[in-house]
Amino acid sequence: MRFERLRIQGLRCLTDVSVELAEGIHVFVGPNGAGKTSVLEAAYLLSHGRSFRSGAREALLQRGSASLAVFAEASGPGGIGRRLGLGREGQRWEARLDGEDVPLGLLVRACAVVCFEPGSHALIAGAAEERRRFLDWGVFHVEHGFLEAWRRYQRALKQRNALLRTGAPGPDALYAPWERELGDMATAIDSYRRDYLDRLVPELATSAGSLLPELGVMALRYRRGWNEDSDLASVLADQRGRDLARGHTTAGPHRADWSLAFEHAPQREHLSRGQEKLTALSCLLAQAGLHATCRGEWPVVCLDDLASELDLAHQAAVVERLAQVGAQVLVTGTECPQPLLARPHRMFHVEQGQIRPLL
């Protein structure tokens, strides 16, 4: 997929800007606070329905504005055109696809963007929620049954948690239907996730081997969120008393996690901050590569403040990889990253919320 045109209204300091995009690499340069990252954030919103910046939900709106909107014209395999839109009025989000109002999930399925940014190391060093989001975004784009299973699981989880918050044990008949539903959907979700990870591991081994050869052989560990030897419905019934005391469900795929271990860094704590960033980047490139294998097209790749996040050798390696596969790339920086100077690219200057093409 690639964007042909991106229009942004009321997002942070971007009042109303439009940028024409093409194939290949695009570089957005300008001073700090000019709005460069917000361009990438707009693209990411269309693909994820949220920002990649932590705690950004309320800060997305431009000061004094009651709404924001992001529109894009994009093309997919075979040059098929799509019109994408996401708007927010107060707390309400609205998605549009080819001129029709659609559920957010349909918009996200039609638009694939991955982003490497200063907070990306949280994928490795942060909470399990970050890793589940990464995993489920990838599964969602290649397994069409995943979304329905996840929605049914979340609905049943909400009902069981509401019962638990009453603090009263209640008859088994109240809990058993929801626990059966949770068990059935958990089995489906776990199967989708395992299949996806099985396909991701070879891509990940390749990207990690290229960016972090000094760490040796890589292994991925996956924990599904409940005892491997039991079905979830039985587990939930057995630990209902403990869950009542805590007021929420403590086992299930919403508690799943995964981690990477290397031959010469078997624990996450053995990685330096720079190695955490490179490991996260390896994961993102692997996910993008698998997406291309499954969907026939690379996602748009955003690299925020590339020159500050990676040394020259790793900048060059990433640029070479993305240039080889022909991905559309959006890069930001206070100046053009050195490895891009000798490569074809389009450059834009961003300042005071305005975007001006340079070349």
UniProtKB/TrEMBL annotation:
It is found in: Cytoplasm. Residues 4-335 form the RecF/RecN/SMC N-terminal domain. The keyword Cytoplasm applies. Pfam families: SMC_N (PF02463). ATP binds at G30, P31, N32, G33, A34, G35, K36, T37. The keyword Cell wall biogenesis/degradation does not apply. Keywords: ATP-binding, Cytoplasm, DNA damage, DNA repair, DNA replication, DNA-binding, Nucleotide-binding, SOS response. The RecF protein is involved in DNA metabolism; it is required for DNA replication and normal SOS inducibility. RecF binds preferentially to single-stranded, linear DNA. It also seems to bind ATP. Belongs to the RecF family. This is DNA replication and repair protein RecF. It comes from Frateuria flava. The gene is recF.
